Amino acid sequence: MSSPAADTTSPDDPHLWLEDVTGDDALAWVRERNAESLDVLTGGERFAELRDELRSVLDADDRIPYVRRRGDRLYNFWQDAEHPRGLWRRTTLDGYRSGDPDWELLLDVDALAAAEDENWVWSGAAVRFPDHQRALVQLSRGGADATVVREYDLGTREWVPDGFTLPEAKSRIGWIDEDTVFVGTDLGPGSLTTSGYPRVMRRWKRGQPVAEAEVVFEAAETDVSAFAAHDHTEGWERDFVGRSPDFHTTKEYLLRPDGTQVLLDVPADADTDVHREWLLVRTRSPWTLDGTEHPAGALLCFDLDDYLAGDRTARVLFAPTASRSLSYHAWTRHHLLLAVLTDVVTRLEVLTPGRDWARRELPAGPDLDSVDVVGVDPDNGDEYFLDTDGYTQPSTFLRGELGLAEDPEPEVLRTAPARFDATGLEVRQFFATSDDGTRVPYFVVGRPADTPGPTLMTGYGGFEIALTPGYSGIMGRGWLARGGTYVVANIRGGGEYGPTWHTAALGEHRHRAYEDFAAVARDLVARGITTAPQLAIHGGSNGGLLMGVMLTRYPELFGAIVVMVPLFDMRRFHLLLAGASWMAEYGDPDVPEQWAWIAQYSPYQNLSADATYPPVLVTTSTRDDRVHPAHARKAVARLREQGHRVEYYENIEGGHGGAADNAQRAFQWALVFEFCWRQVG
């Protein structure tokens, strides 16, 4: 493991000019690097085969069209070869059951983009309750987080003249009633936080200039963001406002009709959910109530009115164990669904509110497969939609209705065909031992063999995000079906074992996530699954930071590294785009004692001309307005400056996801697989 280099502070950084996202010099540099790497990687027959096979997976007509209910219709967004930017459409449940729905087309994004000469990318729509006649549609230029908002009439299928519209910004907007919304957007100086999100929330009435709308809440400029939401549940209508001081804490208030605010007095790092008369609190750190300490990761239930009156009598709906954690929950009209992770595999439980909150399990798939809630609509009864799949098991899409005592067998609506030949593939779970003795789980997907083989490994390890089993036609077709082994490392910093697994790698303890990943790499070699020269790794965003640390601290463990939309310069991450919002995760580089621990792993500052690095591919997107593309650009510039060979590809579109449509996704993943096969295959 290499030792940390001296701090390279910003004034001494010769590559700061690459932070000018669309500057002429910076884009000329990008075009030169792209041309060099594409010339190397895309000329062979295998690349073309990979690209075309992956595109066929992404555009396949027999994919499952996943739906969400809004009123009496099921809504779907669909992309294929003919409609790369996508169709927003809807149908009825009976139509969907038929297998060949008569889809009602609501919006053709390709046609809209052509008519307006814009590179529109769909970013979602909020349908108004209860009439479901209008929607607030969000469109992004090139896949950026910032969106344009327009009001759309679902009956006439036309934009609403003089409707609710917002120019491009990282806005928050949501319906209150047919003529009123909550909104926070960029209105000039003072309207945004230092993280670039809304600081001021307003109650905006139809026909009113947004700048003149009533201010209902203001956050501090140094907060991550402010928020406001309307609960439209019939008989329980109410409003909530609040702020997020950092990425992991929230202050939420009930907004009374007279404008007064009543604090939901729970721990700042807890997650809250109000449903009808209930207040649910999921703890992220231990919380003592009436002499009882509830651990991090517990789900507690209170009567909301009693709680606001001072009663702290809690009902424990979920208590974590060493192997079990609560991933998320979802309400139907009369029931509460819990998604529980047991050693990283999801299972569902049903709780029915009442005197004893009766509990039962929902059916699940095989041992190492997972089941996830795709959609519920508590305004529409006890209907639920599920998706079950696994690393080698294609998805099954189901619909069910929860009963009061027992649950009818869910109905299979769709079953996805296999996208690759899984004959002989096995899914196994192992545990590696990290430097401090912690057992770290990981999944291995492949054909057991007597000799080590080419292996591609990924991980994330941040923001309490869990990597759970799931089917990927992309990974299957591009890697597994060609004889590779795929590995998913469930390292600390993620949410695989709840909040404690996450907080174990926060701030000054970040090194534990990296030690975990390195431990898995060593364990793979020790088990004879692969060798260091045959082991490639890939990761994006926070996972891209993970790849950068592996490059600079553990280069001897790997044969190739793919770094995607990464954080890399941790000396300046808080100054670039949304970076300020992540200081609760990593620390503040401007505080000397915190920079001291960040400097130990910040990849940009630890790159060395004297080190021997495995082959590296770095990818990013010009339109990524979340993680600044300069992280990737500067990493490549410094590696080149130090005499290291590195491949680079920057997509002009794509946002933080790296691709705006299926053609771009297929191209990018073909680059990744081609690079990895060349280096470790």
N→C terminal distance? 25 Å
Q: Could you say which structural class the secondary elements and strand pairing correspond to?
A: alpha+beta
What Rg, in angstroms, do the CA atoms define? 25 Å
> Superfamily at the CATH H level of the domain at 427-680?
Alpha/Beta hydrolase fold, catalytic domain
- Number of distinct beta strands: 39
Q: Return the CATH topology of the domain at 427-680.
A: Rossmann fold
Q: Describe the global form.
A: globular
Largest sheet: 8 strands, mixed
Q: Give the spatial strand order of the biggest sheet.
A: 32-33-35-34-36-37-38-39
Uncertain stretches of 5 or more adjacent residues: 1-9
Q: What is the helix tally? A: 14
Question: Which class of the domain at 427-680 in CATH terms?
Answer: Alpha Beta
Name the beta content range: 25-35%
Mean pLDDT, as a whole number?
A: 95
Specify the CATH architecture of the domain at 427-680.
3-Layer(aba) Sandwich
Helix coverage percent: 10-25%
